[in-house]
Amino acid sequence: MKIIDTHTHCGNKTKLYPIAEVKKHLEEANADGAVIFAFPEDMYRLTDSLESRVEANEYVLQVARENEEIIPFYFVWNDYHIPDNLDQYRGIKWHRHADEPPYDYADPRCETILERIRELRLPVLIEEVFDHTVAFVERMRDVPIIIPHIGNLNGGYDKMDVFFDKPHVHFDTSVADLEAIERVLAHVGPERILFGSDVSGTRQPFFNFPKVELAKLDRLHIAEADRTLILGGNIQRLTGN
User: Fold this and answer.
1) How does DSSP assign 22-79, residue by residue?
2) Closest Cα partner for 197 from 173, 232, 181, 220?
3) What CATH class has 4-239?
4) Average pLDDT, stretch 52-72?
5) Taking the domains of the chain in order of start, what are their residue ranges?
6) Burial 133-144 (b: 16+ CB within 10 A, else e)
7) CA angle centred on 4, ends 57 and 64, rounded to 5°
8) How far is CA 37 from CA 2, 144, 146, 162, in A?
9) Band (200; pLDDT cuts 50, 70, 90)
């Protein structure tokens, strides 16, 4: 059974959490790999320039080239820049909070990058406000969608039932309450749940380390086959790894 952390930030610039530290924490958890993507700080929060975004995304891709256990996701911001090498990434990170600059979904550039994502069938891990998440899920019915934190930052746990009947929508477990994980698992099954931590640094990490989040999932009373899917099998299927 492979253990893959589906939700890991990584960077060596504005907010420092380089791949050496990522790998150390994966080893502590006996995990085999991780999905990584850039920090919002390098996209728009602290440094807001195309140059910074390109550099941060390229770092993620370079890390994946040098470490076969790493699965790179491309962080899309609201300038909708499409790199020539988008096909070398295995998924998309789409991210903003309610008090942050919005994505303009009517911008023609938005549809252009969404169409490219469709062509490549890249899974999208989207952290957005609830109404935009609902619209995105409907707009992108032909690609896998991953909602992080069992939906806690996409409108809240109690609103996720609108996605239960949508087979292309998946949920990662990063820092979610165990009760919320059990509820969603009971409705969508183990094929649509993915292990994640949302670790993002060695100094006051934003959330918990992989070993902490794994220990939480050990409390789930599930079959070994279901555990295998949640801890790594599902993300391998979605990313083709």
Assistant:
1) HHHHHHHTT--EEEEE--HIIIIIS--SHHHHHHHHHHHHHHHHH-TTEEEEEEE-TT
2) 173
3) alpha beta
4) 97
5) 4-239
6) bbebbeebeebb
7) 30
8) 20, 17, 14, 27
9) confident
